[in-house]
Amino acid sequence: MIQRILYSKWLGLTIALFILLLLLPPLVPRFFVYILGLIYVTSLLAMSLNLLVGHGGMFQFHHAVFYGVGAYTVTLMLTKTSWPMWIGFIAGPIIASIVGLFIGWFCVRLTHLYFGMLQISLGSLIWAIVFRWYKFTGGDDGIHGIPMPPFLASLNQSYYFILIILVISLILLYLILESPFGSALQAMRDNPQRCEAVGINVRRHQLLAILIATFFAGVAGVLFVVLERSVFPDLLFWVLSLEIFIMCLLGGWFTFAGPILGAALTVALRTFIGKYTEYWTLILGVILILLIFFLPEGVMGYFVKVLKPQAKKVPARGNP
Amino acid sequence: MGFLPNIGPAELLFQLLVGLSRAMILFIVCAGLSFVLGVLRVPNIAHGSLYMIGAFATFSLSKAIGGPTGFWLALLLAPLGVALISLIAERALFRHLYQREHLMLLLFTFALALILGDLVKIFWGAEYRSVPAPEVLKGSISLLGASFPRYNLFLIFIGLLVAFALWFFVTRTRIGKISRAAAVDRDMVGLLGINVSWVFAAAFVIGCFLAGLGGALVAPTVSITLGMDQTLTFEAFLLLPLGGLGNMWGALVGSIIFGVTQALGVLVVPQFAIVFPYAAVVIVLLLRPKGLLKSVW
Q1: Residue among A122, A134, A281 minimizing CB distance to B282
Q2: Between β-strands B146-149 and B140-143, what pairing exists: parallel, antiparallel or unpaired?
Q3: Model pTM score
Q4: B40-50 tens-digit pLDDT
Q5: What pLDDT band is residue B2 in, cutting at 50, 70 and 90?
Q6: Nearest-CA distance from B190 to chain A in Å?
Q7: Which terminus of chain B has a smaller tally of CB atoms within 10 A, N or C?
Q8: Does B30 touch chain A (CB under 8 A)?
Q9: Where are the domains of chain A?
């Protein structure tokens, strides 16, 4: 597998891009650094969702809950306890994946839309509690001005921290997808009955996938706090869940890097169209409809299809 | 103080009525969504946007027409306008996508919701609007020692009327029967020589008409504003599986559970009132994941 990665034609491009992104912060305005940071955080969130949606074929409709749980966990650890800060950073993803396991345990008994519906209801319950529990979570105001350790004092330092964690997470996600577990996951997406028949425990694999995905969603939540220094209940709201779901579809949900592209496009569109007109969602809607009609595999899916060496077209029989 | 703070029967009855009238609005909108979900198999995220357009259109129409007839005409015209919008969207765009992946249809309705939401912002702006209820329905009636707002009683009446009309439509009319058949087996309906594409269009338009009707009916009871679409879409998707997806009576059961638990929650713990309906949904779905009644999925 290592050999395959080393000889991959994408490797050089990826490393060049990484080096470029490392060099950027001193050269571009502060605002761009912030937007790039936001794109990284959102990308990681969308990537973690796509492990379930694109590769696992599960209708994870309320993924933002785990992002929010990660963000709130690290925030509450940093503001309400005097424990060392790194404990909060580690606790975020772990609590997120425990909650994920708990919700997932109920959901994996169901399939498709019922899976998604049960998850929406369980997730919304968590959202409603966070939204209303003023004493503990700050309610709909959220918590602002979260103290950060000194090595994350400036925006550029946060940027590097987020970028490095993102790259490590992406490498881990890639290795997971290339592992036998990843292959089993994709096989379960395509034919769950057959997988069951050849002896794969579908539910256990799905539960493990949920555990991994919610862990990375928690990591994204922690990174959001590092970037933004505040949390609010919108992080757990279903609109965000829907948005990241759309990012996966938009970028190309059967490709590895598609969600990154989808997240980058969505965040960039919102920021730059939002500068010129308040009606940016109208433009986003029109772009989405154009994409649905003309690039049904998503943007990345389209490029993968075009760049792939095509088999020579054989004329259909009886139709020369 | 026990588990329940001292609640008089009058208060309880009053909250029950408020909950029921809210449930009727939810029912009218969700019955439409459920119908679309059953026949087209598409979770229509734009449904809440059509509800919002119905409410805004009622505001503009009742103001433009004016007088006591204004509201009643608006109540009729606003849902028809919404139905027209949905017909255009369906015939121009949506019908080309039926063969696609299901999630693509979801993506399309999301894009439609984004576009409609911003169009409402362009036409009506971001201010809060309110529609006065007509003279006949203002004030309240006192009943069993509590005073009930007349409009809420009117809502419950209309809700029951819509339920009856829908029952008549799906069991007694030809198009209703065909759409029920299409919900179960669309290929077979096509094989019988029925134009399934137009059945889908009719189902979509009827569902969206109900969304507009719900919006028009809710207009005098709330302040009409942007964002009411998101709240409603969300509540609708939560309560639909309660009764069974695509089942009209399921929408009624789900709406009543949702509306009443919320209203009674206000009496018990006001701060966590919004948690109650979610908890009710979770409990029902954990026990019966496919809903209380039969689902068409």
Answers
A1: A122
A2: antiparallel
A3: 0.84
A4: 888 888 999 99
A5: very low
A6: 25
A7: N
A8: no
A9: 13-236
